[in-house]
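Researcher: Go.
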Amino acid sequence: MPELPEVETICNGLRLGGFGQPSILGRTIREASVFWPKSIATPSLDEFLGLLPGQKIGDINRRGKFVLIELDRHVLIVHLRMSGDLQVRQEGDARATHDRVEFVFSEGDRLVFNDTRKFGRVWLVEDVNQVTGSLGPEPFDGNLTGEMFFSMLQGSSRQVKPLLLDQGFLAGLGNIYSDEALFLAKIHPLRVARMVNALDAARLLETIRQVLQEGIHHHGASIDWVYRGGDFQNYFRVYQRTGQPCIVCQAPIQRIIVGQRSTHFCPNCQC
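Model: Structure:
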């Protein structure tokens, strides 16, 4: 599943252009087509198709793992889930097998939501909080201090790895970057959150920000067919390095299942 750096990369590409695609800022939607109705979470299909024509794209942002496309009167929200992607296609380009929704611009080219596994969802709302209101703080939020993060950890008796994956606790973090951040912070993924002391909490927040920034710098990690152009996978310290030597102490990296998710760590550095 795309995590914060991958979603940020996609947003940047749509906003600024990149990966061979133009910016879509300022484009006016002429019409929309839906090829898999379950991709539309809200409103009804008829309302969705009727509300979009004539609306212009004003800005593109991210909240957690959600892509926010701001229109004149609404916000188009996309969650990519396991295999979703947003692609700009030229007029005349053939439809791809897994295209689920498309937005045709006045110029004839179009923005396409392609989703192989059909888990992704699209919302058209007036109030973003209708969809994102339950999310926790953004990792880069300037109001999120080490002291505040320590207090958040102190309020939970859960293990720290699954807690970091909880989008209601912290928005945008996923399996890759939580493993990498915990390694740099020297915190075992099974440590109970309220047992993390203030110094370790501040260091963990710092390493979360570090690995996310590294991921954004490298345009995310290309470990699945939906990630485009990222190379952060070449800089993994523990993720998917099971059995390979730790870059710090040479102990073999271990893999365990935590909350039904693969978790990678160094048993020596993260004791």
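Model: The chain has a mean pLDDT of 95.
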